[in-house]
Design brief:
The structure holds 2 protein chains of 2 kinds.
Chain A: H1 2-32, H2 39-55, H3 62-83, H4 90-112, E1 125-128, E2 131-134, H5 135-157, H6 159-169, H7 171-176, H8 181-203, H9 214-226, H10 233-254, H11 259-276
Antiparallel strand pairs in A: 1-2
Chain B: H1 6-21, H2 24-49, H3 57-73, H4 78-100, H5 105-125, E1 142-143, E2 146-147, H6 151-174, H7 176-186, H8 188-193, H9 198-224, H10 234-247, H11 252-273, H12 282-301, H13 306-313
Antiparallel strand pairs in B: 1-2
C-alpha cells in the first residue's frame, strides 16, 4: 500500500510538470492556432539557467524566479519569429518553432555544454500515510496547483484574460472590438514560455535535464494537452496527472524500460480515436 | 514519356563523373549526400503533395537499414537484403499509415515523431537486433558474386539509387495518380468530389516515401556496416525536413538540391569547426544553428523553397518546346 502511495505521489509530481508544459501549449494554441514545438526548450533553458545561477551563489527562490522570467522572454522571442511576420500560416509557424527548438540546442551547448545537469531541490523526505517520498514532489504539486489556480483566475476574472479568450474564440470579432490579436498572440507565447520554464525548474531536481531532453518533454506535454483537444486547460491538467501516474505505476510495477512508451502509446490512441470521429475529408477554412 | 531536359542530362553526367575525381573522405560525403537526397525526395513528395509533415522519416530509414542489416548478418543474400529494405519500410508505412494518416498537420507531426521514439525504444530493447549497442559486422553488399567493398562502388550504387528514386517519383507525379495528388494538394474537397480516392492516394505517397527512405537505409547499412538506434535520432528526421523545405516542397529537384545544399553547408561548417583552436563543441553548435537558421529563414521568406524560386527567375531551357 505504501509502495502504491509512493508511486502515486511521484507520478502526480511528474504529471504536474507534463501538465504545465501541456498548458503552455494550450495557451499558445488557443490564441494563435500554433502548436509550439519549442515548448520543451523553455523548460530546458530555465532548468539550465537555475543550475548556473545557483552555482554562482544566487539563493534558491530568486534563481528560480529569474529563470522563469527568462523563459518568458525566450517565449517572446520564439513568438516573434513564429507569428511576427504577417501571413504566416499555423502550419509554417509549427515548422518555425521546430527551427527555434533546434536553435535552442546550439545556444544550450554553447553556454552549458552537452552534459546532463541538475540542481538540488527541497532536501528532506517526508512520510505521507506511511509512504516515504521526497518532499520536493510535494513542492511540485503545491506550486502547480497554485499556478493552475492563478491561470483559472486570470482567464475568468481579468480583462486581459478575457481579451486572450476573445482572441482565441474569434480573432476577427476580437479585432473589431479593439483587441490587438497579434499582441495577444505574443503574450500567449510569453505565458507559454513561463509555464514551460516553471515545469523545467520544478522537475529538474528529481529528473536530470539534458539539452536534447526537450523532445520527450514536448511530446509528453502534447500528450497531456491532446486529451483536451489542445484547448482545455483543465483537461490538460487531468491528462498530465494521468500520464505521470501511469508512467510511475508502469515504472514501479512493470519495468522502467516501458516508461516512455506509456505517454507515446496513449497519445497515439487518443489522437486516432479523436480522428475517427472526424470525417476523412478535411473541411476547408472559410 | 517526356524527353529529358539538357539540365537533367548535364546533372546526371556531372554527378556520374564526380566519384572518379573525389578523395576517399569526399566519397563518403557523396554517398551520405545521395542517401539523404533519396529520403528527402520522398519526404518532399509527402509534404508537398499530401500536405503532411512527417517528423519521423528517419524511422523508415532505420527500418530499411535494419532489414538489410539483419539479413546480411544472418548470412542471407545481401542483394535480397537491399530489396527487402524498401519493401519492409513500405509495408510498415502501409500498416501504420491506415490509422495515422487520418491525422492532420501538427497531429500527424507528433504522431510520426511518437512512432519514431517508440521504434528507437523498441530497437534499444531488442537483443536480436543488437539492442542499444547496435548491429555489428554487417557484410558488404555483393551482387552476382562481386563484392562491393570500395567507397567508389557505393558512390555508384547511391547514384543509381537516387536515379531510380527520381524516375519513380517523376513517373508517379506525371501519372493519373500524380494529377490526383496535385488536385488533392490544392483542395481535398474538390479532389474528392472529382473522384480522387483521397485516403488511398495519401497512403500511396506515404508508402512510396517510406520505400525511398528504406532503400537509402539499406544502402547505408551495407556501406557503414554498423547500425545502432543512436544512428537514427529524432534530429535526423528534422534534418530531412530541413532539406525538403530548403529545396522546395513537392519538387523532385528540390529534394536533391536541398539535400546537397544542406549537407555541403554542414560539412563545410564541420570542417571549419574542427580546425585546431576551435572548441570541441563548435561542430555541433554550428550544425544545429545552420539547420535552425536555414529552416526558419526559408519558411518565412522563401516558402516555396530554393528550386522553385530559382526556376521562376531562370526557367530551364527545353530541347523540345512543350505545350502547356
Amino acid at each position: 500500500m505504501s509502495e502504491f502511495l509512493q508511486y502515486l505521489i511521484t507520478g502526480l509530481g511528474v504529471g504536474c510538470a507534463f501538465a504545465l508544459i501541456g498548458s503552455g501549449l494550450v495557451v499558445i494554441y488557443r490564441v494563435t492556432r500554433v502548436v509550439n514545438f519549442a515548448q520543451g526548450a523553455f523548460a530546458v533553458i530555465a532548468a539550465m539557467t537555475v543550475s548556473s545561477l545557483l552555482g554562482s551563489g544566487v539563493p534558491h527562490g530568486l534563481a528560480e524566479a529569474l529563470a522563469v522570467a527568462l523563459a518568458g522572454l525566450v517565449g517572446l522571442l520564439v513568438g516573434l519569429t513564429a507569428i511576427g511576420k504577417p501571413g504566416t500560416s499555423p502550419q509554417s509557424a509549427l515548422i518555425v518553432t521546430l527551427g527555434a527548438a533546434v536553435f535552442a540546442y546550439a545556444v544550450e551547448i554553447l553556454i552549458w555544454g552537452d552534459q546532463p545537469r541538475s540542481f538540488p531541490g527541497l532536501p528532506a523526505s517526508v512520510t505521507v500515510l506511511g509512504a516515504r517520498v521526497q518532499s520536493h514532489y510535494l513542492l511540485i504539486i503545491a506550486a502547480s496547483a497554485l499556478v493552475f489556480l492563478a491561470m483559472a483566475l486570470l482567464f475568468a476574472r481579468t480583462d486581459l484574460g478575457k481579451a486572450l479568450t476573445a482572441a482565441a474564440a474569434n480573432p476577427y470579432a476580437a479585432r473589431i472590438v479593439g483587441i490587438d490579436v497579434r499582441r495577444m498572440g505574443l503574450l500567449s507565447f510569453v505565458i507559454g514560455g513561463a509555464l514551460g520554464g516553471l515545469a523545467g525548474v520544478l522537475v529538474t531536481p528529481v529528473q536530470q535535464v539534458t539539452f536534447d531532453g526537450d523532445v520527450v518533454l514536448v511530446v509528453s506535454g502534447f500528450a497531456a494537452a491532446i486529451l483536451g483537444d489542445l484547448t482545455r486547460p483543465a483537461a490538460t491538467l487531468l491528462g498530465g496527472l494521468l500520464l505521470g501516474v501511469a508512467q510511475a505505476m508502469v515504472a514501479g510495477y512493470l519495468s522502467t524500460s516501458y516508461q516512455s512508451e506509456v505517454a507515446l502509446v496513449l497519445m497515439l490512441v487518443v489522437l486516432i480515436a479523436q480522428a475517427a470521429r472526424r470525417p476523412m475529408i478535411q473541411e476547408e477554412p472559410a | 514519356m517526356t524527353r529529358p531536359r539538357p539540365g537533367t542530362l548535364l546533372t546526371a553526367a556531372a554527378t556520374l563523373a564526380l566519384p572518379l575525381l573525389l578523395r576517399d573522405d569526399h566519397l563518403t560525403l557523396y554517398v551520405l549526400l545521395g542517401l539523404s537526397a533519396m529520403v528527402t525526395i520522398g519526404l518532399s513528395m509527402l509534404m508537398g503533395y499530401a500536405g503532411q509533415v512527417s517528423l519521423g522519416q528517419a524511422s523508415f530509414y532505420a527500418l530499411g537499414g535494419y532489414a538489410a542489416g539483419l539479413i546480411g548478418v544472418h548470412g542471407g543474400p545481401t542483394l535480397l537484403g537491399l530489396l527487402a529494405a524498401p519493401a519492409v519500410a513500405a509495408a510498415v508505412a502501409l500498416v501504420v499509415g491506415v490509422p495515422i494518416l487520418r491525422l492532420r498537420g501538427h497531429q500527424l507531426a507528433f504522431a510520426t515523431l511518437a512512432l519514431q521514439l517508440i521504434l528507437l525504444s523498441l530497437l534499444s530493447d531488442a537483443t536480436w537486433a543488437g539492442g542499444a549497442i547496435g548491429l555489428q559486422g554487417i557484410p558488404h553488399l555483393s551482387i552476382a558474386g562481386v563484392e562491393l567493398d570500395r567507397d567508389i562502388d557505393y558512390a555508384y550504387l547511391t547514384w543509381a539509387g537516387v536515379a531510380v528514386t527520381m524516375v519513380v517519383a517523376h513517373n508517379l507525379m506525371s501519372s493519373r495518380t500524380g494529377r490526383g495528388l496535385r488536385a488533392l494538394a490544392t483542395s481535398e474537397t474538390a479532389a474528392a468530389a472529382g473522384g480522387v480516392p483521397v485516403g488511398r492516394y495519401r497512403l500511396l505517397v506515404f508508402a512510396v516515401s517510406a520505400a525511398f527512405a528504406g532503400l537509402a537505409g539499406g544502402v547505408y547499412a551495407y556501406f557503414v556496416g554498423y547500425l545502432a538506434p543512436g544512428s537514427f535520432p529524432v534530429l535526423l528526421s528534422v534534418q530531412f525536413v530541413v532539406m525538403a523545405v530548403v529545396g522546395g516542397l513537392g519538387t523532385i529537384w528540390g529534394g536533391l538540391f536541398g539535400a546537397a545544399a544542406v549537407t555541403l553547408l554542414v560539412q563545410f561548417l564541420t570542417d571549419f569547426g574542427t580546425r585546431p583552436g576551435m572548441p570541441s563543441y563548435a561542430p555541433g553548435v554550428l550544425s544545429y544553428a545552420v539547420y535552425a537558421v536555414l529552416l526558419v529563414l526559408v519558411v518565412l521568406f522563401l516558402p516555396q523553397g530554393l528550386v522553385p524560386a530559382v526556376r521562376k527567375r531562370w526557367p530551364w531551357p527545353r530541347l523540345v518546346p512543350t505545350r502547356r
